[in-house]
Amino acid sequence: MTTADLASQPVREDRAPEQTAPRARSARHGSRYAPYLFLAPFMIIFGVFVLAPAAYGVWISLHNWDFFLPSRPWVGLGNYLELFDPTALVAVQFWESMRATGLFVLFSVPFLVVIPLGLALMLNRTFPGRTFFRAVYFAPYVLGVSVIGVLWQYLLNANAGLINYHLAQLGIAEAIPWLTATPWVWVTLVGVTVWWTLGFNAVVYLAGLQGIDTTLYEAARVDGATKRHEFWHVTLPGLRPVLLFVITITILASANVFGQAYLLTGGAPSSETRTAIMYIAQTGFEQFRIGKASAMSYILALLLIGVSTLNFLLFRRQERN
Q: Is residue 187 in a domain?
């Protein structure tokens, strides 16, 4: 083809930008909805198994709901108001169970916050067998509560338990009623729970410790800081988000205690260790007063929401200071 032929060819305009513009717009629209598509499976599961049952539970709590009644009449806030009536037996027993739950939280949470932190500080050091010891301390956490209950029932039985047997060999003649009398029942519940769950908190602390910049420790040593100063001014500030997480989930888990008390003490002695979840389960599944049990559940949930919110506010204030 000659130069004249090339010159005679019609000039075609480049319309690539116009052709790709719709594609770019569709790509932008697709990227806008992509996060929601990824979230959709979780939101469906969360809605079906969490939000819908929660809303249905509120509806149940507003009725005199009994499986054996032909009708379930509307009572409005009657189930809630009855729980604040000091003359009602259900209110007295419910707040006694809330007191037991509060005592367990008060006794267990400090140990479950402090002991795992000390354990994590030790396991964060370099020494032979460190990985083995990490696994050993975490191992009890993988056991189910039924296994824990059977194991410690065997160890702490007042008459045939191994612990009382060995104490007798040491000269302690009187058998300690670990599962039937106060204050030993609280020692049992708190001790077993700490032994069972401290490994989880220790692992969380350990992850937080490994996230602290080591140059901060080096700078502190250059300034002449001791180990105590490093802990208070480097380690604890670096662990503040982890501490918030550990304290919050530990309070929530301790307030929802059920399996240990149910399997080890059965609420004894005289309903002293009958926790709120135990009483709610007894009211709902043994006495079949589902409406009252639902109202108790939501009162407990609101109290725990309040405690968690207060915990977040306190930590936020410390961060500002």
A: yes
In this structure, is residue 240 part of a structural domain? Answer: yes
Distance CA 190, CA 184 (A): 10
Partners of 93 in the β-ladder: none
The answer as to whether 70 is a domain residue is no
DSSP 8-class letter at 13: P
Report the SS3 class of residue 176.
coil
Host domain of residue 289: 82-320
Asked whether residue 38 is domain-assigned, the answer is no
Global pTM? Answer: 0.85
Q: Does 179 have pLDDT greater than 80?
A: yes
Q: What is the DSSP annotation of 213-259?
A: -HHHHHHHHHTT--HHHHIIIIIHHHTHHHHHHHHHHHHHHHHT--H
CATH classification at residue 210: 1.10.3720.10
Contacts (Cβ under 8 Å, ≥6 apart) of 103: 186
Confidence of residue 314 (pLDDT cuts 50, 70, 90): confident
> Structurally, how many domains does the chain consist of?
1
Q: Which is higher by pLDDT, 11 or 60?
A: 60
